[in-house]
Amino acid sequence: MFYAFVVTGAWLLWHLGFRIQVIGKENLPKDGRGFVLASNHISAIDPVFIVIARYWGKRMLIMAKDELFHINPLLSWMFRNVGVFGVERGKGDTKVVEQAIEKVKKGQGMLIFPEGTRSKTGELGKVKSGAFVVASQAGVEMIPCRIIYQHGTMKLFSRVRVCFGKPIPAEHLDLGEQKSAAKLRAAKQELLEAWEALYDQHHF
């Protein structure tokens, strides 16, 4: 109930402050399968735009930096209740990630920002491996997501497009038991190409 209330309230609030357009929503799984939603990252409110764009369905897991949970106890409580979980960057927080992977296997979606940090210019950054490891171990497909701001970066009352691309099949993301570096490079390249195609097709 809390999740439904927050998402509905955010939908109303953010549509007043931004003109949000959703493209490719039909590419999101609707049959209860787990998935990894991999988005570029420009603004701190990107996760809000993505959740609003998806709007309804089983609550997604949202991977975030652990520092967010040390700002304020009330904020930490809210984050946990809307599906956010924290991972300590650079420390291989394997237990938390393994628990999340099990939930994805059982049919939850997980939102990850593979660049690991926000882009100050709107340009794509270096893609890290975490999203691909999760998708590989969970055996699920990856949905490319490109957030496009009218002015390149987030500005109040500007237009925003949230674009969902065609799923990258699970077999393209299977890194094998040895986590093949060649397969990982190919998977990263496929995501980057999907992001570029979404921008080429839908930029302002």
Description of the structure:
The longest helix has 22 residues, at 181-202. The protein contains 7 helices and 7 strands, in the order αββαβαβαβαββαα. Helices cover 40% and strands 19% of the residues. The radius of gyration is 16 Å and the shape is globular. It has a 7-stranded mixed beta sheet with strand order 1-7-6-2-5-3-4, with helices on both faces. The chain has helices at residues 2-17, 46-54, 73-81, 94-105, 130-138, 170-173, 181-202; strands at 19-23, 35-39, 61-65, 84-87, 109-112, 141-149, 159-164. Helix 3 links the parallel strand 3 (61-65) and strand 4. Helix 1 packs across helix 2 (46-54) and helix 4 (94-105) packs across helix 5 (130-138). The protein has 204 residues and is α/β, with parallel strands linked by helices. The mean pLDDT is 84. The termini are far apart.
Give short descriptive properties of this protein.
40% helix; alpha/beta; 7 helices; transferase; 204 residues; seven-stranded mixed β-sheet; single chain
